[in-house]
Amino acid sequence: MVKSLWTAFLLLSSATFGTHFPVKKNILDQSCPYLDSCNSTINENQIETLLTYVDSQINPCDDFYAYACGKWREKHGVHTTATTISETQINRQYEDLFSYLLRNLSAPEHGYPFYGKLLTHYQNCTDLERPNLRRYLDLLGQDLLSSLSSTHWMNILAVLGRYGYHGHFVQMEVRWHNASHHMIFLLPHNRHVNLSLTSEIYSALSDVGSSWPPLDQMQEQFKNLEQNLVRLAKSHSADDTFRNYSLDQIRKEVTGLEWDDAFRMQLGRSLVADHVFQVDDLVAIKGLAEYLNKTDILLLNRYSLARFLSHLLELPHNPMANWVNGKMPRGRVCIRHMRRSLYLPMNYVYERSFYARRRSADELVINRVFKQLQNQLEMRVQRNPFNLSQDLVNSLKAKVHDMRINVGNLPPNVSEKFYRDSDQRWSVGRDFYENHLNSLLYYYTLVADLEGSTNPKERGIWYSFNMHTPEFPDNIDATPYFYCLGNIIIVPYSYLTLPFFHAGFWPALLYGDLGNTLGHEMMHALDTDLVDYDAQGNLKNFSDQLGQVELYNRAVGCLNSSAVMLNERTSDVSGSRLALQTYGGNWLYQLDNGRLYFLQFAHFFCGDEGDQYHDSGSQRLNYSLSQMPQFAEIFACQSGTSMTSADQCPFW
C-alpha cells in the first residue's frame, strides 16, 4: 500500500526517471536564491542520486533514515559515508595532479610556492622500500645520541618538543589560546597514555649509546617508571584548572630545572622573567621534577626516545605504521600523510589547482546563508526564552554576533607573498624520514614564533583560519566545524563539493544541507560544552550560570537521553530548527519541496555508524526530525508514529 504522496512519486520516478526530473515547475522551486542562474543538470543529477538511495517500501514516518538511506549500502558498501566519498575524490585529485607534474616538468605550477617541495616529499614517500625507524633517531644528531647517560632529561624533552612531541614527564607545548593569541602551556605527565615498547621500536633504539638490556627487561623497567609517573602526575589538590604563572614564578616554585635553557632549545628564543604561561597543577609538576632528578638519566632518556618513535608512528597516516608485507606505500597513502603533516602547503596546492575557479560563487552563497542564520540566532538569543540574566544574554549575543566563517582551508584574502614567505620556512631533505621531521619542525617552529609575535598583520592572518596540528584526526577536517578558540566556523574543501554543496543548488537542496549544517555548527557556540567560550575565545563560566536556570536545565534534561555526546544532540536539534526557522517559508510546503529538503538533509547521515563523539547517523537523523513538527506535517505523519515525538524539547 502506498504510504504517502511522496512515496507514490518515488515509485513513479523509479520507473520513469531519465535525464529529466519529471515534475512541474510549479511543484518544485527551481529558483536560484543568490546567483543569477542555476544549472538545472546539476540539480537534476543530485535529485536522481538522492532517489537511488530511497527504499520506497519503508514508511518515512516509521524510520526516515531507513527510508532515505535504505539503499545506501547496496550502492556503496559498509563503512562508506558521503564524507569518505568526498575525501576519496580529493585524494584522487592530488594523486592525478602530482602524476601530471612529474611527467610535465615545464608545467607552470613548478614556479609557484610549495609545488616543487611537495613533489619531492611525495616521491620520497612513494619510493620507500622498507621501514627504517632508526633513521628518525639518526636525524636528531649523533652528539645527542652519544650522550644519553649525561644529558639532563629535560634537554632531551626540549629537543623532541621542537618536533611537536611533548607527551610525558613535564609537558611544554604551544597552543592556540583564544581568538588572537597562542600561549605556552605546562602540564604534568600525561597519565592516560602509556608506551608500548614493540620489537620494532626496541630494535631501532638498541644501537643507541651503550648496550641495552633485553627487550623484556626494558619493558619491565619502563612499566615501573610509568607507574611512578602516574602516581605523581596529579596532586591531591581538587582544583587542577589552568592558571597563569610568570616564568619567574615557575622558576621559584619548581627549582632544580634549567627552565631558560629548555625553552630556548625548544622555542628557539629566550623568554623574559614576566612571560606568562598557562600551567596545570604546578604542585604535580614540582613532584615529578623532584622524582625525575633522582632517577637514572639513561633510563629516562631511553624512555623519551622510545615514546618519540611511538608518537611518530601514531601520527595520522604515517606510512611506517601500516607497512604490509614489505610493500612500498601507494600514492594515496602518501597523500593522506602529507595532508596531515603539511597542512598549509597541501591546501595551497588544492586551492590554486582545483578550487580557485569556484571560490567567488561559493563565498557569495555561503556567506549569505551564514549571515541570515546568524541574524536569526542573534534574535533568538535576544528573545531570551530561558529568562537568563541580561549580562549573560549580552555575552551570548555578542558571541553569535562576532562569529566568523571561513570558506576553505586557507586564510582569506592573503597575497602570494604570504605563501612564498611560508615556503621559505620549510625545507625538504634526502628521504622520507628527513622530510617528515622537517614538516613537523616547519609547523611547530611557526607556532612557536607566532606565540611570541607582536606583528598585528601577521597575527591577523594566522588567526583567520585553523591550521591543524599534524596530530589532528581526519574527522576534524572532513565537514564544517565550529572552532571555539577562534569563534569561527571552518567550511573545508571536503564539504565544498558534491554531494554536499553546489552554489547553484535549488532552495530545497541548498538549505537542506548547507542551512542545516551551518545551523548545527553555529549552535555549537551555545551547546552544553563549548558555550563556556566567549566571543574572543576566552574560557568563561557561562555553563555555571546556565546551570542555575531551571528552564534551561529542563530543556537540557529533555534532550539528555541515550546520546553519546549531549552537545552534539543539542546542536543537531537546535541547528535544524534554526535552519527551518530561517528558511521554512511557503515554498517548503509546496508539494515535493519539503520532502526534497529532508531527503537532502538525510544524505549527510547515510552510512554513518557513529564514533566516540557522535551517535550513529540513523539515531541523529531520526531523533532530530522527530523534534520538528514541520517534518510530520510535510510527510503527513500521524501522532504516535516513531518520527513524531510527544516531548518537544525547547533547547534554544
From TrEMBL:
Protein name as annotated: Endothelin-converting enzyme-like 1
PANTHER family associated with the record:
NEPRILYSIN-LIKE 4 (PTHR11733:SF237), ZINC METALLOPROTEASE FAMILY M13 NEPRILYSIN-RELATED (PTHR11733)
Cleaved signal peptide residues: 1-18
Species lineage, top-down?
A: Eukaryota, Metazoa, Ecdysozoa, Arthropoda, Hexapoda
Q: Name one Pfam family in it.
A: Peptidase_M13
Q: Which cofactors go with this protein? A: Zn(2+)
Q: Quick one: where is this thing mainly located?
A: membrane
The answer to whether UniProt assigns keyword Zinc to this entry is yes
- SUPFAM superfamilies given in the database record: Metalloproteases ('zincins'), catalytic domain
InterPro entries, per this entry? MetalloPept_cat_dom_sf (IPR024079), Peptidase_M13 (IPR000718), Peptidase_M13_C (IPR018497), Peptidase_M13_dom_2 (IPR042089), Peptidase_M13_N (IPR008753)
Q: Which intervals hold domain Peptidase M13 N-terminal? A: 60-408
Q: Which family does it belong to?
A: Belongs to the peptidase M13 family.
Q: Could you list this entry's UniProt keywords, alphabetically sorted.
A: Hydrolase, Metal-binding, Metalloprotease, Protease, Signal, Zinc
Q: Where in the cell is it found?
A: Cell membrane
Which Gene3D superfamilies does the annotation name? Collagenase (Catalytic Domain), Neutral endopeptidase , domain2
Ranges for domain Peptidase M13 C-terminal: 485-649
Membrane topology classification:
Single-pass type II membrane protein
